[in-house]
Amino acid sequence: MNVSNFILFQIAWFVTIISAANGLPYVGVIYTLLWVFIHLYIIGDKRVFEFEVLISAAVIGYLLDSFLVYKDVIVFPEPALFGGPSPMWMVCLWINLAATINYSLSWLKGRYLLSALMACIAGPLAYAAGDRLGAINLSDNSSLIIIGFMWTCVMPLLIFISELIYKHQASKNQILVNGTGN
Fold first, then answer.
1. Is residue 41's pLDDT more than 60?
2. Distance (Å, rounded) from C-alpha 175 to C-alpha 182?
3. pTM of the model
4. DSSP one-letter code for 103
5. 79 upstream amide cis, omega within 30 of 0
6. What is the total count of domains within the chain?
């Protein structure tokens, strides 16, 4: 499961970025919806919890990337716009990442410092790649520093939220199994 999760994550990232860079941002949205549908189907009983994780990441990602747009840290070229201020395809990248937290990135659970360090490097690299491929424009060199700081904070937060959702649901299930729930 973890290997296929990682591969599908990578494919979704490339499809989404390349399609946005080529003026077809809806292609990445459609692909992400299909991949998430398959992901949720495969994980079975955990799909409700996972859906909460995905929605949480979508909201956080939309707000953070919209903030970056409002502060002129990133700019989306006209052909890449599909919604806004953070376009829908960009939100799909957050959903795509969130779908890895409990699977191919599960080894980062509880390792907040390590996840922050990795995100400080990987986050700016992903945005720089998006810039090079033409899906976004970074306003200047300080953009990557700001993005790095943002990701240093947000990746541990996403992991923490995922852990909370799964622990809360597990405790609710335990109450129901023990028959002590109302």
1. yes
2. 9
3. 0.90
4. T
5. no
6. 1
Compute the distance between CA of residue 53 and CA of residue 58 in angstroms, rounded to an integer: 9
Model pLDDT for residues 7-21, shown as the tens digit of each residue: 999 999 999 999 999
Give CA–CA dist 53/59, Å, rounded: 10
DSSP code per residue over 14-78: HHHHHHHHTT-HHHHHHHHHHHHHHHHHHHGGGHHHHHHHHHHHHHHHHHHHHHHHHTTSEE--G
Q: How many residues does this entry show for the chain? A: 182
Q: Tell me if 92 sits within 8 A of 32, measured CB to CB.
A: yes
Q: In which domain, by residue range, is 131 found?
A: 2-178
DSSP 137: E
H or E segment to which residue 158 belongs = helix 142-178
3-state secondary structure at position 109:
coil
Calpha distance 69→86 (Å, rounded): 7
Q: Cα 46 to the chain's mean position, in Å?
A: 18
